[in-house]
Predict the 3D structure of the following.
Amino acid sequence: MKKIILILLAIITITACKKEVIKPPKNLLEKEVLVNIIYDLSLLEAAKTQSMGVQYSYPKASEFIKSKYKIDSITFADNIQYYSQDAKEFKKIYITVKERLDNKTKELNGGKIPPPDTSQGILK
């Protein structure tokens, strides 16, 4: 009886630890498109925080995605969920976004070095 219980516990443990794979969404975006969307959303958020009193004049993120990329927010969320299941690849996506943001900051600062990194090593 003890052996049966141990075998059942082992089977339950093995199946419980099995990683569930998320299937690609119907409208799977290429990684570069996802990078572009996250980059644009980061710029939109930065613009909102820089002009506190004029936030109402900026589009909502869902409206922005729909108008520029012709996808809805659910498709975007499904793609984020799909790509995030591979942590290393998802990190690469965000590193690419960060590099683009740093380059844009450098460009806007007239070629000067961007301000110190405040990500505290999260994306390193």
